[in-house]
Write the structure tokens for this entry.
Amino acid sequence: MSFSRAGAELLFQVFAERYERASLLVTSNLPFSEWTQAFQGERMTAALLDRFTHRCHIFEMNGESYRFRESMKAKKGGKERPAGKAASPPDNPQS
């Protein structure tokens, strides 16, 4: 995902205004080294990362995708259903 220059500047403004005032949670599947592509350049990305990484906790999770694992289980068990079709509720003998 890439932001337009104006979009990147607006997002940066939101982050800058929250800097050291309130908590902020950000998730990404990109390493910091690839954020320059999303934020239109090295200067803006460096300034953003400077604020993000100051007084922060970084949790790096490099495991298997939960959604992928569940979809593979469903395929192996023959429980795959068409996209957009909801699962039927389990039978409830008490109702």
Remarks:
- DSSP finds four helices and no strands in the chain.
- The mean pLDDT is 79.
- The chain has one domain: 1-71.
